[in-house]
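Q: Entry one of two.
A:
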Amino acid sequence: MQSLTNHFLIAMPDLEDPNFSRSVTLICHHSEDEGAIGITLTRATDHSVEELLDQLDIQEAKLAATHALPLYIGGPVEQDRGFILHPNRKEYQWEGTETISDHLAITSSLDILEDLARGKGPDNCLIALGYAGWSSGQLEQEITDNAWLHGPADPEIIFSLPAEQRWTAAAQSLGVDIRLIHSAGHA
C-alpha cells in the first residue's frame, strides 16, 4: 500500500470504537515498516488552550485569539503530550516541527505554545493532546476490514470547519455522502 501520510482517515459509520467513532484523523506519518501516527481532528475537549497554557505555567500570555481555541483529543496514545497542526511555512518552524506535506506541519515542542501565548505563531492551528497510532500492517488491515475511508487531506477542512462538520466534509471531499452508508461488509 502507498504511504497514507497527509491523508484523512475517515471512520466508517459502523466503527464503534469510542476513540474513533465518526472521526477524521490526519495521518502525519505512515510507512509499511513503522506503521502510522495520526491526529484525530474531531474530538474537542471541554478545555481551552488558555487552560493548557495556565497548566504549563506559561506566564507570558497575552489576550491572543489562540487562547479561546478548543483543545482536542488527538488520540488515545500519550494524552499528556501535545501536538500542534499548522500550515507548513518557512516562518512557522520551531524546535519540534516536522513536515507532513507542502501545506501542513506538526510541532510538538513547547516553544510553539510560548509563541502562541504571545500572540505570535500560525494564524491557523489545531492543538491536540495525544495521538493515534497503528503498528506495522494494522492500519492496512483495518482499511481492508472496511473500518476506514481514506483520501488526501484538505487543510481547509482542518482549519476552516468546526469539528462537528469535519467527518461529513472529509467524506464529501472523496465524493461520498457518509450519512447514507449504513453498514459495510464484504461481498
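Q: Entry two of two.
A:
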Amino acid sequence: MSRPVPEPPRVGETLAALRQERSMSLDELSRQAGVSKSMLSQIERNQANPTVAVVWRLSNALGVPMAQLLEGAPRPAPPPIATVASHATPSLRTPDGLGELRILGPIELAGQFEWYELSLQPGGALESQAHEPGSREHLSVLSGCLQVQAADAATTLQPGETARYAVDQPHAIRNPGSAPAVGLLVVVHPA
C-alpha cells in the first residue's frame, strides 16, 4: 500500500508578502536574487515551485532564513518600537582614518535609501566614486563645518545647513576646519 506523496511547499504567498513588506518590485527582486521576473511571477502565483538554489537566492535577497520561505509560517509581529543599541550600530572608518560613518539605516533599505552619521576630524575626508545615475546625497551639518565637492562645484556648510547634490560622479565631503565635525548624510538611489 503506497502512502500519499506530500505536495511540495508552496512559497508563492509568503514570497509575495515578503516582497510587498519590503516595497520591492518584481524587477528589483529579480535583479537582487538573480532570478528571472517571469519565474518570480510564476512562483508567486503558485504556478511553479522553485529549486533549493532559487529559494536560497530569494531568501538572501529578502534577508530571511530559507525555512521562512519554505514553511510559510507566520512570523511574530515586530515590536511596536525596535531599538538598536549604540554599540550594535555598524560603522566604517574612512580610508584616511580620520572619519567614521555610522550606518543608521536598516540593511533592507540599502541600495534604495540610506542614512548615516558622518564624523570627520580636522583634515579628514570621505571621498566617493560615482553612484548610479540619478543618485543624490543630502548632507546636514550638526556641528563643525563640512565642505562638499560634487562635479566642479564646492561649498562649505555650517551647523544647521544642508546641501543636496547629485552623486553620479566622484564626490567628496571634507572637514576644512580646526574642530571635529558631525553631519547626517542621506543617500537616495533612483527607483
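A: Comment on entry two: Helices lie at 12-21, 26-33, 37-44, 52-62, 66-71. The longest strand covers residues 113-120.
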